[in-house]
Amino acid sequence: MSFASVLVLNGPNLNLLGTREPTIYGAETLDDVARRCREAGERLDLAIDFRQSNAEHQLIDWLHEARETQHGIVINPAAYTHTSVAIADALSAIAKPVIEVHISNIHKRESFRHHSYVSAVAEAVICGCGTQGYVLALERMAEILKSKKVK
Ligand code: DQA
């Protein structure tokens, strides 16, 4: 039994990791990222629920579910980062710690990627660390949840 559970949520096109613009996003597939997250979860004593959807409404429905079932959220909202007030609102509504992850350094890229609606509701933002960013986010989430004494 883990001391806390974390939803790791991935937005649109991240199912194509490994084949999608590998010079930007690297060679690892989403299954590789899921495996890394589960390994980190075992080490950190966190139960990991790893999901991906291309649909905004599905991501929002899963966030609503997480209100009852998860202690924290690690989210790579992908392109919805830059467009979705609805996902930011859902994250605010569920009132759980949120860490935003981007594989690439969004600030080094096109200017439309520089603004995130999610950052304003996140405890932390990790970008430009490649897929390692997910592991770093889980390490930080474990600290946050321990300090909140989640049981
Ligand atoms: C991304 C960056 C976003 O701008 C982009 O739309 C993505 C992936 C990243 O992980 O670097 O799909 O979130």
What's the gist of this structure?
With 151 residues, the protein is of the alpha/beta class. The chain has helices at residues 22-25, 30-44, 56-69, 85-94, 132-147; strands at residues 4-10, 46-52, 72-76, 98-102, 124-127.
How would you sum up this structure, described in words?
It is a single chain. 39% of the residues lie in helices and 19% in strands. The chain has 151 residues and is α/β, with parallel strands linked by helices. The protein has one domain: 3-Layer(aba) Sandwich (Rossmann fold). A five-stranded parallel β-sheet has the order 2-1-3-4-5, with helices on both faces. Helix 2 runs parallel beside helix 5 and helix 3 runs parallel beside helix 4. The termini are close together. The chain binds 1,3,4-trihydroxy-5-OXO-cyclohexanecarboxylic acid. 1,3,4-trihydroxy-5-OXO-cyclohexanecarboxylic acid binds next to loops.
List key phrases describing it:
EC 4.2.1.10; 5 helices; 151 residues; 3-dehydroquinate dehydratase; Rossmann fold; lyase; 3-dehydroquinate dehydratase activity; alpha/beta; single chain; globular; binds 1,3,4-trihydroxy-5-OXO-cyclohexanecarboxylic acid
Structural class comes to alpha/beta
- The DSSP helix count reads 5
Strand adjacency order, main sheet: 2-1-3-4-5
- Whole-number count of domains: 1
Give the name of the CATH architecture: 3-Layer(aba) Sandwich
**Overall helicity:** 25-40%
Main sheet?
5 strands, parallel
Tell me the distance between the termini: 11 Å
Whole-number radius of gyration? 14 Å
CATH level 1 class label: Alpha Beta
Care to count the β-strands? 5
For CATH, the homologous superfamily is named as Dehydroquinase, class II
